[in-house]
Specification:
By secondary structure, this protein is mainly alpha-helical. Helix content is 97%, strand content 0%. It has one helix and no strands. The longest helix is centred in the middle third of the chain and has 100 residues, at 2-101.
Length: 103
C-alpha cells in the first residue's frame, strides 16, 4: 500500500515537472514568436520605407521633367507673343491713333 502511495506521489511529481517544462517551452516559444514578429515588422517597415523613397525619387524626377517641359513651352509661347507684338505694334498704334483722331 505504501508503495502504491509512493508511486502515485512520484507520478504526481513527474507530472508537475513535465507541466512546468511544458509551460517553460510554451513561454519560450511565445518569446520566439514575438521576436520573429518584431523582426518581420521591421523588415516590412524597411521594405516599405525603401519603396516609398524610391517612389518619391521617381515621382520627383517625373515632376521635374514636367516642370521643365512646361517652362520650355511657356518660354516658346512668350517668344511667339513678343514676336506677334513686334510685328503688329506699329499697325495697331496707327489704327488706334487714326480711330481716335478721326472721331
Amino acid at each position: 500500500m505504501k508503495n502504491l502511495i509512493d508511486k502515485i506521489i512520484e507520478i504526481d511529481h513527474t507530472a508537475d515537472e513535465r507541466l512546468k517544462e511544458a509551460e517553460q517551452r510554451k513561454a519560450q516559444a511565445l518569446k520566439e514568436i514575438d521576436a520573429r514578429k518584431a523582426e518581420i515588422m521591421k523588415e516590412i517597415t524597411m521594405h516599405g520605407d525603401t519603396h516609398l523613397t524610391d517612389l518619391e525619387k521617381t515621382e520627383s524626377a517625373s515632376a521635374q521633367k514636367q516642370i521643365q517641359m512646361l517652362d520650355k513651352t511657356l518660354q516658346e509661347n512668350k517668344k511667339t507673343m513678343e514676336s506677334l507684338y513686334e510685328q503688329g505694334r506699329e499697325k495697331w498704334v496707327r489704327e488706334l491713333t487714326d480711330g481716335i483722331l478721326s472721331r
